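Changelog note: in this version the structure field was regenerated for every chain. One regenerated record is shown below for reference.
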Amino acid sequence: MSYILDTMGNLLHQTAFLNLTWGNYLMIAVACLFLYLAIARGYEPLLLVPIAFGMLLVNIYPDIIASPEETSNGIGGLLHYFYLMDEWSILPSLIFLGVGAMTDFGPLIANPISFLLGAAAQFGIFGAYLLAILMGFNDKAAAAVSIIGGADGPTSIFLAGKLGQTGLMGPIAVAAYSYMALVPIIQPPVMKALTTKKERAIVMENLRPVSKLEKILFPIVVTIVVCMILPTTAPLVGMLMLGNLFRESGVVRQLQETASNAMMYIVVILLGTSVGATTSAEAFLNVSTIKIVILGLVAFVFGTAAGVLFGKLLCVLTKGKINPLIGSAGVSAVPMAARVSQKVGAEEDPTNFLLMHAMGPNVAGVIGTAVAAGIFMAIFGI
């Protein structure tokens, strides 16, 4: 009888119920909220489902992301090895390869002024950098946190690793990807507050046709120019442009299909679950993380506002030919931000089709965020 009682007692003490803290239960609730938003509300499920499930797993079984040094048998947890690929910049670079293979850069080539809108939206990054320093972060940590303003998860992970801020990588990545997924909630109030109904209803002229030669030359030229000026951006910009060259060259269809489908989805699973698994209660529920989440939101809002305000300026300069809403797509969340510009514009005029116009600043924002990361690395001599 005592053997049975001891066995049952051992089993009971091995369950998660007796080992979890209130913080674990709070993070489990947050994970369930994210799953609800992804599944029931459709908020970027490809991002939120793996992130939320990784969050759920680590708060039930923390050893799933434990390093070999933290375990008794010297074997790390499953998600630890996924996370190493984040730290080594492998998964962020592969994400950029997939994005390039999936994305049509034609709207950016057809309307080069989109580069300015993409650049304007990076204001949030540099504004957040100064604010982070005022809030007590050191210069490298402030730079790693501020890149969240570009709404670019892979670049946030990449820069945090390059600047040696692996301790902050988890909260930074979760904040960046969460805000990317919540673009449809965060951006519209800012866009509507800064524009008039008349501006939101502006119908833009059709974009000019872009030749095949232009589409082939664009990734080659951008790689040469950007990487010659900021060589440290090569892993991101280079992979982005390589993926796009796969798409536009027309001679490596198998590579393009693999990069934009099978490989992309595999990488999203590995990156999403490993990022979510960094949100254990012990690592996530602290003052620094709260500051990072707040700074990320402020940076994202500032970036959106800067893009819209610059769009208003261009609207005036072009005598009403540019709808300011497309400026909000200058953040790097592709194609979510462009879809939000389309949605908000369609609310004023259902026949207005802004999506392709917004894709120009959206693609420029991807390049701009990578360039901003390169600038920070150059400043710190990385």
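Spot check on this record: Residues 216 and 248 are 6 Å apart (CA to CA). The chain has a mean pLDDT of 88.
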